[in-house]
Each structure stands twice: as C-alpha cells, then as structure tokens.
Specification:
The chain is α+β, with helices and mostly antiparallel strands. Helix content is about 20%, strand content about 25%. The chain has 2 helices and 3 strands, in the order H-E-E-E-H. The chain has helices at about 5-10, 65-75; strands at about 25-30, 40-45, 55-60. The protein has a 3-stranded antiparallel beta sheet, with helices on one face.
Length: about 80
C-alpha cells in the first residue's frame, strides 16, 4: 500500500479491494549502492497466481525485517510461511 499517495487522494476517489491471495511467494533479493559490503534487501510477497506484489519491505537480511512484512500480508489470509531450504 502506498500510504503517501493515499494521503493525497480524496476518499471518494479510492476503491479498496481486499481478497484472500490463497497462495503467495515470500522471498528476498539483494542489491547494493556503491558498496557491496552494505547490501540492502527487498523482502516481497507476490500472489502466486496473478503475479501481483502484495507487500514489500526494505531492510537487512534479518528476522526483524521479515517480521515487518508479516502484518502487511495478514489481510490476504496467508496462513504460513516457508523458507527456501
């Protein structure tokens, strides 16, 4: 959800549709700016069927950052999460 954008819109101009995603892929990927020693991670949840990004968080590759993502995907009814390995 783009909260800064929503703050600029009138409530009459906004339609909100929330539905259960059923299945989603939660993963992380990394990149860096100027220094490889200071990587930044993009954690994201993608609807498995439509490819729509449900939510994302930027941060380190730490559990605390994943825990920031969990409440963002909660409205989509994802019951559990699995790791890559």
């Amino acid at each position: 959800m783009n909260k800064p954008l929503l703050n600029t819109l009138s409530p009459d101009d906004v339609d909100v549709l929330i539905r259960r995603a059923g299945e989603a892929e939660v993963d992380e990927m990394w990149s860096f700016v100027q220094k490889k020693k200071a990587p930044r991670w993009l954690w994201h949840a993608i609807d498995h069927h439509s490819g729509t990004v449900l939510a994302y968080v930027l941060g380190r590759r730490k559990d605390a950052v994943f825990l920031q993502l969990q409440p963002l995907v909660e409205p989509f009814g994802l019951p559990r999460f699995y790791t890559d390995g």
